Amino acid sequence: MSKTNFGKHSDFVVKQENPFNASPPVKLLGRSSVTPTELFFVRSHGDVPMVNVDGYRLAVNGNVSKSLSLSLNELKNNFERVEVSATLQCAGNRREELIAVQPIPHELPWGVEAISHAAWVGVRLRDVLAAAGVDSEASLHQHVDFGGLDEAERLNTRFNFGGSIPLTKALNAEVILAYEMNGEPLMPAHGFPLRALVPGFIGARSVKWLERITVQDEPSQNYFQRHAYRLFAPQIGPETVNWDEGIMLSEMNVTSVICSHVEEEQVASGVVTVQGYSIAGGGRDVMRVDVSCDGGESWTAAKLLNDAGPWAWTLWKLELELKPGKYQLVVRAVDSAINSQSAEVAQVWNFKGYMNNAWHRVNIIVE
Predict the structure, then answer these.
(1) DSSP conformation letters of 66-106
(2) Cα–Cα distance measured from residue 78 to residue 71, given in angstroms and rounded to the nearest whole number
(3) Which residues contact 55 (CB under 8 A, 6 or more apart)?
(4) 92-120: pLDDT as tens digits
(5) How much helix, strand and coil, in percent to the nearest 5, is found in the chain?
């Protein structure tokens, strides 16, 4: 283990050294429903803090009847231990395809690999909020603001990373304060000693290195909620943007990706196995995954491989009999709310490069 890769796989692809942002090679992604921790992608906005757990406290305050200050052991001993199987995805996943349409400066050029799945263990956020006397009857217009220990710098100002979710989401059983990942304590790069886990929402809302939970009347005022992680129309750019008009990102949208092949890959003729992942946000299920080998002219339904559950990706596979020639593989998915994907990347382009869920296309050469 080197000091720079935080115990990650030797083939881990580093997108940025400082802050550390990295992901697995696409062909190692989705080989199993649970991503090994050494292959789980890392999205950081500042240095990874090294926390002394002996002095660690979690503050719970704001619109509560009793403010709390909890050690990690107090969380473990005083609240029920629960496990949630959930996929996390960066809102900037697949930004590389958007950049090919039009440049997106100052944003990480993620391919399709800023997504991973793990088994998480922790305590329900709603149980902690109940201990602080949060009134669930008054939850309609309340928000839960998470504050992390990691520092970022934007607009010549240093501040801690943060973000919020509606209290209505926070009171759901799937939202936990996680201290274990895949059967082990959280690694430093994944939020040790404690992180929020908000299944179905963009990864930025699952704040790492959690030090504060504040119940309040408004969404977080943190830069990463007020400015970053907002969706704008294609005609809006950094010169014309009104940050208050952007859609504040929360639930993920339905998307699907081919992992078994990369652009211009040469493969042998005969049976070609195409594999990948699909995910639907907000607790919805992936109902169907369609694959095309002729650029979207005709489609075949893929086999869904895992009984994923509402907070997990769905892995899929399809075997195609292909003769020598050039083929464009395409994948699309439909979720349980009949949400589908846009056919063209240009239709979902935005100047921040978020939420790309256009049909995923990979050109291959069969010999």
Answers:
(1) S-EEE-HHHHHHHS--EEEEEEEE-TTTTHHHHHHHS--TT
(2) 10
(3) none
(4) 999 999 999 999 999 999 999 999 999 99
(5) 15, 35, 50
Cis bond before residue 105 (omega within 30° of 0): no
Residues 200 and 140: their CA atoms lie apart, in Å, by 19
pLDDT at 156: 87
CA distance 273 to 265: 13
Tally of CA atoms within 13 A in the half-sphere of 256 that contains its CB: 33
**Rounded Cα distance, 195 and 188, in Å:** 11
* Whole-number Å distance between alpha carbons of 356 and 112: 10
Is the link from the previous residue into 19 a cis peptide, with omega within 30 of 0? yes
Tens digit of each residue's pLDDT (9 = 90 or more) over 126-183: 999 999 999 877 677 899 999 999 999 888 899 999 999 999 999 999 999 999 999 9
Mean of pLDDT values over 352-363: 98
Q: Which two tokens stand for residue 318?
A: 């399809």
E strand map for 217-313: 230-231, 247-248, 255-258, 265-267, 270-279, 286-292, 300-301, 303-304
Give the Cα separation of 20 and 305 in Å (integer).
Answer: 32
Alpha helices in 211-352 (DSSP H): 223-226
C-beta separation of 176 from 122 below 8 A: yes
- Per-residue confidence (pLDDT) for residue 194, from 0 to 100: 98
Helix (H) or strand (E) holding 167: helix 167-170
For residues 357 and 348, is the Cβ–Cβ distance under 8 A?
A: yes
Tokens in use for 166?
């509606």
Q: Which amino acid is at 63?
A: N
Strands 300-301 and 360-366: unpaired
Whether the CB-CB separation of 46 and 223 falls below 8 Å is answered with no
Q: Are 324 and 269 in contact (CB under 8 A)?
A: yes
Cα(161)–Cα(191) distance, rounded to whole angstroms? 12
**Residue 352 pLDDT greater than 70, yes or no:** yes
| 292-318: average pLDDT | 93
What's the pLDDT band for 307 if we cut at 50, 70, 90?
Answer: confident
CB 195 within 8 A of CB 209: yes
